[in-house]
Amino acid sequence: IQPPYLHLPAGKVSAHRPPQHTQHFLLLRWGGALHLPSPFPNPVLYIWPFPAPGSPFCPLPPSLMDLLALLLPCLLAPLGGVATMASPGPGGQDLQPNPPPATRLEPMEKFKEFQIRYNKSYEDRAEHARRFEIFIQNLARAKKLQEEDMGTAEYGVTPFSDLLEDEFLSLYAPRFGMPSSWPNQAAKVPEGPLLRQTCDWRKIGAVTPVKNQRSCGSCWAFAAVGNVESTWYLRAGNRLVSLSEQEVLDCGRCRDGCKGGYAEDAFITMRFNRGLASEKDYPYKVRARPNRCQANKTRAAWIHGFITLPKDEMCESPGC
């Protein structure tokens, strides 16, 4: 290969933006100098505390996600927006880093904090870049909503800030409107004094701690199991037991309960399996495993049946 060359001293990282319609290149150099032919366009270099040349091992940087977050704006920038830097050849002066655009520094820092706080990781660089762009869009939306709000709510970063609205709805929004698997029955309200307007079951210990369904669309199972947990508390001498949502996913009629379902199906599973195991005995795995049902575990709670109230009765029933 004939000169000119690009000279990358040890301890440098290079991200290249190739011509249009070609793939991006991310070159990591862990030790020793690297000589590249000059046709690589628009090199962008960042100094990183890599091991010294000749080190017997080359560990990853403290966080590869941090590194990618720094390089992301350069990889996504318009072709003409990345400054071209050249070197006279081997032995020339070190190339200086080209910092990310100032307009993206704050979102990048927030995105890194978001990943750490909510333990977020992604399959590859493309997915990381996609989630970062969604995160930026959601930040802008939250800012706009906060500006339009009259102080009744607070908008900002949440565990769902890297999701599109459709993704959030498919994972966490309950389904309504499907005919019940069990006939609707009229509620029988006992005669007597009216109940108080409000009641917080948490204060008397009838509600288990908040659970996290994570990336599985199993809200229907969590809703049904939470209902039984509190009912069991009242029926079993104030004994609160955290029950197994995973058993509902594994042993129910839905082949893939992570794609959504209905609370009625969860109640049917509990009834025909003669109850549920505890969460401790049958822990949550964040996925449905229809071929691994273990309904033979010790029953921690059970139900004899259930009714589904018409929507108007649910709205008109007096407090709890």
UniProtKB/TrEMBL annotation:
GO biological process, one term: immune system process
Main location: other
Entry keyword annotation includes Cell membrane: no
Classification via SMART domains: Inhibitor_I29, Pept_C1
Compartment list: Lysosome
Residue ranges annotated for the Peptidase C1A papain C-terminal domain, each copy included: 195-319
Single GO cellular component term: intracellular organelle lumen
Keyword terms, alphabetized: Disulfide bond, Glycoprotein, Hydrolase, Lysosome, Protease, Signal, Thiol protease, Zymogen
Domain Cathepsin propeptide inhibitor: start-end pairs: 111-168
GO MF entry, a single one: cysteine-type peptidase activity
Entry's transmembrane regions: none
Family, per entry: Belongs to the peptidase C1 family.
Protein name (database record): Cathepsin W
Organism of provenance: Ornithorhynchus anatinus
